[in-house]
Every structure is written in structure tokens, then in C-alpha cells.
UniProtKB/TrEMBL annotation:
<dbReference type="Pfam" id="PF07291">
    <property type="entry name" value="MauE"/>
</dbReference>
<feature type="domain" description="Methylamine utilisation protein MauE">
    <location>
        <begin position="3"/>
        <end position="125"/>
    </location>
</feature>
<keyword id="KW-0472">Membrane</keyword>
<feature type="transmembrane region" description="Helical">
    <location>
        <begin position="40"/>
        <end position="62"/>
    </location>
</feature>
<keyword id="KW-1133">Transmembrane helix</keyword>
<dbReference type="InterPro" id="IPR009908">
    <property type="entry name" value="Methylamine_util_MauE"/>
</dbReference>
<feature type="transmembrane region" description="Helical">
    <location>
        <begin position="69"/>
        <end position="88"/>
    </location>
</feature>
<keyword id="KW-0812">Transmembrane</keyword>
<protein>
    <recommendedName>
        <fullName>Methylamine utilisation protein MauE domain-containing protein</fullName>
    </recommendedName>
</protein>
<feature type="transmembrane region" description="Helical">
    <location>
        <begin position="111"/>
        <end position="130"/>
    </location>
</feature>
Amino acid sequence: MVPEVTTWILILLFLHTGIDKLAGLKTFTAQMERSPLIGAYAHALGILVPVGEVVTAMLLVFGKTRLAGLYASVFLMSVFTAYIYAMLKYSYHLDCSCGGVTKYLDWTEHLWFNAIVLALSILAAVCLSGKIQA
């Protein structure tokens, strides 16, 4: 049950945020350019991040690629969570380049949201790989 519910949550989350970022690509990239941590990589990340989110969502849709999609979800959410933590800890300039519903959260709420989604992704991957059942 956990892998199925988590998978659908992740599909919706990654499709929504990926498409939102692609639809506003200029704004998304411009916001990332102002980031002290990733500004130098904004143009590459401007395409890689939303495409990675959409590809991850597609991997999650199909049974044969679902575990790979969960691993990709764990990777993406780990990177996103680490980035938010680093921004909160080390940056004075907090400009959100997030997409979807997360753009309405403040940075601390976003950190908690990501941590919960990351934990669910890990749990779903472990369950689907057969290591535990939930």
C-alpha cells in the first residue's frame, strides 16, 4: 500500500512541478541565477531539473521502471532537500525558484515538506525492492 500511494503522490508532484517550471522556464532560470549556491549553473539546471522531474514521473508510471523511478525520486528529493537546508543555513538571499504547490511555502515549510516526501520515497523504494513490507 505504501509504495502505491507514494508513487501516485510522487507522479503528481513531479509532473506538476516539472511542467510548471518548464512553462515558466525564463522565470525559473532567472530565479536560479540569483542563487548564491547554484547561480553559475542556472541555465543547465533550468532544463535538467524540470526534465528530470518529468522523466522521474514517467518512470514511476510503469511497473517495470517504478523502482528506478523511486530511486530517482530519492535522488531528486535528497538534492532538493540538501539545497534548501544549505540555503537556509548559509544564504541571506532566499529567492524561491520552486514550482507547483511548493512555491507557496516558506523555506522552513518547504524543508519539512521535502523531508517528508524524501522519507516516503525511501520507504516506498525499500518496500518495492522487497526488503520490508508495508
